[in-house]
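Handout, page 2. Input:
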Amino acid sequence: MDEARLIRFVAGPDAAVVPDLARKLPGRGLWVAADRASVETAARKGLFSRAAKAKLAAAPDLADQVESLLKRRVLSALGLARRAGDLTSGFEKVSAAIGAGRAAWLIEASDGAADGRRKLRALVRKQSRPPGVIGVFSSTELGLALGLENVIHTAFLAGRAADRWAEDVQRLSGFCPLLPESWREEP
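Output:
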């Protein structure tokens, strides 16, 4: 399996299983598929101990910890991308970026109004290479990560940074849906 679709864990000093999302912690890596079911199964069946050939304790909520860490990592990368000039925010700017084919991702606040979201998603569907769409974070979470107020529509512009960010988003999709259930009913 491609490394981008895996999550690395290491044995902590207290014999606890520690997620290593950046893949930089010292020690032998224990790789698990980046989805909730695989992490829960590995924790429940003691597969981390078997792989490490040592007694390790995996927290019962290890999958929830990984999801929380992935969300924090994705939001932090958004903040860095904004400072690097790889993000654009606001309905008009995002609409222009999608129309020009420069957007790799459309990031929508989960609590944003359906009208603006519907218009942007219609524009996304018209593209020959449509950008990915994510609606995991609230307006408040996006605002804190980006250092802005009232962030509803954001576009991650295509480039290497967007490609790296997409790997973390792909891993996050194994733990939570990228779009809220209520959005699936929208046209």
